[in-house]
Amino acid sequence: MGKAPQTAQAPAPKGPDLTVTIAGVLFKNPVIAASGTFGYGREYAGLLDISRLGGICTKGLTLHPRPGNGGPRLHETPGGLLNSIGLENPGIPAFIEQELPALRGLGPVVIANLSGSTVEEYVQGAALLNGTAIDMIELNISCPNVKAGGMAFGLDPEAAAAVTAPVRRAAPDKPLMVKLSPNAPDLAAVARACVNAGADALSLVNTFKALAIDIRRRRPVFDNISAGLSGPAIKPIALRMVWELYEALGQPGAPVPAVPLVGMGGIARAEDALEFLLAGARAVQVGSATFARPPAMIEIIDGIAAHMTAMGFKRLEELCLRR
Ligand SMILES: Cc1cc2nc3c(=O)[nH]c(=O)nc-3n(C[C@H](O)[C@H](O)[C@H](O)COP(=O)(O)O)c2cc1C
User: What is the DSSP string of 99-129?
Assistant: First the structure.
């Protein structure tokens, strides 16, 4: 059989430019795997092309290893997911040695999600991370599933500043994004306190404190009583919070500088992500949707690009009115 004739290949049409810069870090697109829902990346190898993601946030890391909470850890609700993981992780030294080299090699921006029970623990963790190849720290002051620390720091402006400022000093080489709690009575006040204490970016929201009761056992499903609610059920509330925080921060004459917002909460489709980008988020994180559909983030990236092409936008910043 003769050789098939060579046809001249037309160059692939160039898609829209999805790049975004957050606190000086360049992301190839605005879709980031949310902390606690993507392990350290390698767990999803073979299920999606991880190299296409804009970024990966690690599972919440603490200075020392944590076994996590006992009892049930996940419980599905209509349109949502309750979790009570309790920050199970191998500790920062083990993360640096055993997980970071492979995670670094996957391609996306690497964001270390830092947690702790005391300010001192956060600070020591930040100092260790400062000397590594991570791109950014996401300071988690919003975990509702631990008895000490976690969300306690994120509910009150003074407590939030009291951990953000020393972490900022302990990790001078790393951009610092603070992850806010939707359970804070005054989210804008906490956000301003974090920015004044040195945050370069803010991410929101972590999970909503919530409850499920086992009617046969006649007691709460979770040993910790409450748990954190995520998934599509929280999306409209999370979106409203991003919109309002964008309004509250960085207005002309405001006492704090404008910082980029990274939005999340119930994003499952490209349309959801676009809503967050139009509400004022510069990028988005996707969590629970990955459990239901591991390739969800790839579909979201492609869907954003398709929407931009259909609307005639060449660059993401042309699409977003609030930036
Ligand atoms: C099982 C599970 C574990 C999580 N662990 C963390 C964590 O370790 N650190 C953190 O900052 N957020 C954690 N989160 C919160 C997510 O990163 C995200 O803020 C939240 O789930 C809302 O996004 P989603 O509705 O897309 O899931 C966790 C969420 C889930 C569902």
Answer: IHHHHHHT-SEEEEEE--SSHHHHHHHHHHH
Question: What's the CA-to-centroid distance between 34 and ligand 1, angstroms?
Answer: 6
pLDDT average, residue stretch 300-311 = 97
What Cα–Cα distance (Å) separates residue 130 from each residue in 27, 133, 285? 20, 8, 23
Q: Does domain 25-67+90-209+232-317 have CATH number 3.20.20.70?
A: yes
Q: What is the pLDDT of the chain when averaged over all its residues? A: 93
Tokens 């600070």 sit at which residue?
A: 123
Q: How confident is the model at residue 252 (pLDDT cuts 50, 70, 90)?
A: low
Structure confidence at residue 190 (pLDDT): 96
Least-confidence region, from 151-160, 227-236, 314-323:
314-323
Q: Is the CB of 55 under 6 A from ligand 1?
A: no
Any idea what DSSP says for residue 79?
A: T
Judge whether 185 and 47 are in contact, CB under 8 Å. no
Q: For residues 235 and 69, what is the distance between their CA atoms, to the nearest angstrom?
A: 26
Overall pTM > 0.85: yes
Q: Which atom of ligand 1 is nearest to the CA of 291?
A: 31
Regarding the beta carbon of 80 and ligand 1, being less than 6 Å apart is answered: no
**What separation in Å is there between the alpha carbon of 35 and the centre of ligand 1?**
5
Separation of CA 235 and ligand 1 centre (Å): 13
- pLDDT, residue 67, reads 95
The predicted model gives 23-39 an average pLDDT of: 98
Work out the end-to-end distance of the chain between its first and last CA atoms, rounded to an integer number of angstroms: 60
**CA-proximal residue: ligand 1, atom 8 (nearest):** 60
pLDDT at 222: 97
Active site residues: 143
